[in-house]
């Protein structure tokens, strides 16, 4: 009987039997994040960039993808009060020290505004 209690305590310690947290911690954005976009809410992104070509919902988070001929931009949204806010932006391609290429984002903004 005593060994089964010890086994249960060790099992709980190893598997993390503690109560689950209410919210998962937000991931830390990588270096090179464009400072003018992080924190923007979803409605402002839609106004600036238009309708995304692809949206993926994963629980309370969303990823929006915007495409143009030269690149793709991915906006990662997390809950922020009653709305979603950008937590991370990444483009493909991007530089070695930046998550998002500013020329790609500028091209997507221009396309959304109808500027060639």
From the structure above, extract its key features.
disordered N terminus, 3 helices, alpha+beta, Beta-lactamase Inhibitory Protein, Chain:B, domain 1
Characterise this structure.
The chain has a single domain, classed as Beta-lactamase Inhibitory Protein, Chain:B, domain 1. Helices cover about 30% and strands about 25% of the residues. The chain starts with a helix and ends with a helix. The N terminus is likely disordered.
* Estimated radius of gyration: 20 Å
Beta fraction of the residues?
25-35%
The helicity comes to 25-40%
What is the second-level CATH architecture?
A: 2-Layer Sandwich
Q: Can you tell me the residue ranges where pLDDT is under 50 for at least 5 consecutive residues?
A: 3-15, 17-22
Integer count of domains: 1
Order of helices and strands: HHEEEEH
- The span between the termini is 77 Å
Tally the helices: what do you get?
A: 3
Query: Which structural class do you get from the secondary structure elements?
Result: alpha+beta
Mean pLDDT: 80
Largest sheet: 4 strands, antiparallel
Strand order of the largest sheet: 1-2-3-4
CATH level 3 topology: Beta-lactamase Inhibitory Protein, Chain:B, domain 1
**What is the CATH domain class?**
Alpha Beta
Give me the secondary-structure topology.
Elements: H1 2-15, H2 42-49, E1 54-58, E2 61-67, E3 72-80, E4 83-92, H3 102-112
Antiparallel strand pairs: 1-2, 2-3, 3-4
Short description:
With 116 residues, the chain is of the alpha+beta class. It contains three helices and four strands; from the N terminus they run ααββββα. β2 and β3 (72-80) form a beta hairpin.
